UniProtKB/TrEMBL annotation:
Organism: Brachybacterium phenoliresistens
Nucleotide-binding found in the keyword field: yes
Entry GO CC: plasma membrane
The name this protein goes by in its record: Sensor-like histidine kinase SenX3
GO MF annotation list: ATP binding; phosphorelay response regulator activity; phosphorelay sensor kinase activity; protein kinase activator activity
Pfam families, sorted: HATPase_c (PF02518), HisKA (PF00512)
Source organism, top-level taxon: Bacteria
Taxon lineage: Bacteria, Bacillati, Actinomycetota, Actinomycetes, Micrococcales
Locations listed in the record: Cell membrane
Length: 262
């Protein structure tokens, strides 16, 4: 029964999300959303919230099976269990992305700043993505802890979506990498690929509402990513050329003197 309910909620979420994305593509950036798109947003928010709990339970059960706590699995069963865990994790990430975007559509939410090791956060995100996407993602996070006062959930979602967009957009043979550096300005998280790159028109469209650098992108758009980074007092730098790959750098600043941050 729970599985049927979860599948039904997932179908509704995907349908509402598709309507929302189509509405974005059809309206000018400055226009207010029409009633149908506003309704889709409300449905996406509700379903994204409702779907996380049953999917988290499914994922937890799958992880217990993967650990073979109830008993040993054969190779085929392990493959099935891995598919369950990986895809529920992927959809939970989508739901969290839609909820985050809904919060920003409703106005600038308060940041839940805590002391976060940015290098550790990048490592955790890349490891999880490697497992789900079955795609090599190179990681360079050498160095000691790089601690900043940031909203960990938001920065994780920014990195998750930048990586997802790079993997989808760059092409199956492209190399995708993440690098975390410490500079005089702060922490720099770089997501790079050596794939298709973007021409000037595609780059300009990147920061339009819903823009992701890929026509099939379904995560939070670059406009929301930019607002999240801006709220942290940071900035985004895009370096791209058609057929030469793309580098997107997120710069998160050190705390201002006196402990005040932007």
């Amino acid at each position: 029964m729970d599985a049927v309910l979860g599948a039904g909620l997932l179908g509704l979420l995907i349908g509402a999300a598709a309507g929302l994305l189509l509405g974005r593509a059809r309206r000018p950036a400055a226009a207010a959303p029409p009633p149908a798109v506003a309704a889709d947003r409300a449905v996406v928010r509700m379903l994204s919230h409702e779907i996380r709990t049953p999917l988290a339970l499914v994922r937890g059960a799958g992880e217990l099976l993967a650990e073979e706590s109830p008993g040993p699995l054969n190779r085929r069963q392990r493959s099935f269990v891995a598919t369950i865990v990986d895809n529920t994790t992927l959809v939970i990430g989508m739901a969290e992305g839609f909820l985050l975007e809904a919060r920003w559509d409703a106005g600038t939410p308060a940041l839940d700043r805590t002391a976060v090791d940015v290098r550790a956060l990048a490592r955790e995100t890349v490891l999880e993505l490697r497992r789900i996407r079955r795609r090599p993602v190179e990681l360079d996070s050498r160095g000691g802890p790089l601690v900043l006062e940031v909203d960990a959930g938001m920065i994780r979602q920014v990195l998750w979506n930048l990586l997802g967009n790079a993997i989808r957009h760059a092409g199956p043979e492209a190399r995708v990498s993440v690098r975390v550096d410490e500079t005089v300005e702060g922490a720099v998280i770089e997501v790079a690929d050596d794939g298709a790159g973007m021409d000037e028109q595609a780059r300009d469209a990147l920061f339009a509402p819903g823009g992701s650098g890929h026509p099939e992108g379904t995560g939070i758009g670059m406009d929301v990513i930019t607002r999240i980074v801006d709220a942290h007092g940071g900035r985004i730098v895009v370096d791209t050329l058609s057929r030469r790959g793309t580098r997107i750098m997120v710069v998160l600043p050190w705390p201002a003197p006196g402990g005040e941050e932007g």
